[in-house]
Amino acid sequence: MEKTIYLKGRIDSANAADTEVKINAEIGGFDGELTLDAGELEYISSAGLRVILRLKKANPTTKIVNCNSEVYEIFDMTGFTEMMDISKAYRTLSIDGCEVIGEGANGIVYRTDPDTIVKVYKNPDSLDEIHNERELARKAFVMGIPTAIPYDVVKVGELYGSVFELLNATSFARLINDGEDVDTLAKQSVDILKTMHATMLKDGELPSKREEAIGWAEYSANYLPAEIGEKLVELFRAISETNNMLHGDYHIKNIMRQGNENLLIDMDTLSMGHPVYEFAAIYAAYIGFSCVDKENCSNFLGITTEQCKTFWASTLKYYFEGSATTPEEVERMAEIICFTRIFRRTIKRYGVDNAEYKALIDFCKDYLIKTVPETDIIYFRDET
Asked: Which end of the chain is more exposed for a tag (fewer CB within 10 A), N or C?
């Protein structure tokens, strides 16, 4: 259980004793997690700090949130930030009139000015996600992946966002719309992709994509003929467990050009596993989600269907150049993983009887019923 007590105004020698009596009365016999909200606290003196110290001793889980800069500095200078969990209030940011430069399942990315962008998370309880993404971005950066690290967390209305400094950065989607060559940009994206996949992690260092993907197959099997469902699960289980770093949402809106450098954003889907999972996600972005919705490319990525197909084909061409693995083989593997994922995702979100999504469910089901029986393997030898 949690309890929040709100601190207001000033707490100093003139009112510290009375404040302590009021707080203790409010706490009563409560012995769970205690939060002191300092959003309206203007000042705290040494007498007030002693009140906080006694509260902390009586309730070891006590934490303080929403401190303004001045109050936080007092806690920091007196060593309280080393003794207990104390956090600053989040800066508020308006996105009114800001350009939307990307949108994914978890958030929307806005350009707030020429130097900065903010990713606003759709989930109002997203602080854990935000801090997790920051740590993942730092991990990737330290390991040599060209990525932008968020430097601030802000409040945007009732939601939270991560702020990135990307000076005049432009997404590959915008570059394509501005007339840059799709094939050339695909080659540049493969350079980053190969760097990421060549980064080998320790066991358990990031979430396993294999475990997640097997779950897609096991769920989907319940809605397929028994023999096909069983073979689908076998195909997924046969994919070897590897420790390659994977982005998980790799497409032209998450690749940014800043000056002469290309950077990745949206690192919250970072995981580890066989690169075939990455190609399944890339295929889904450029081709898979357009299997029924023919406007998906223009609505999601802002480019034409033909440009999506070209980017996908060029990605395969450059990644597997000189390899014994052919683009056609990888595409078939990516298709099966992609449509298993979409099949499971759509049924789980909307059910099998939702009229709006019936065509998508039927497409994926028909594809798997036709393709799985004639498929022996859905992974390739690691090319990195």
From this structure: N
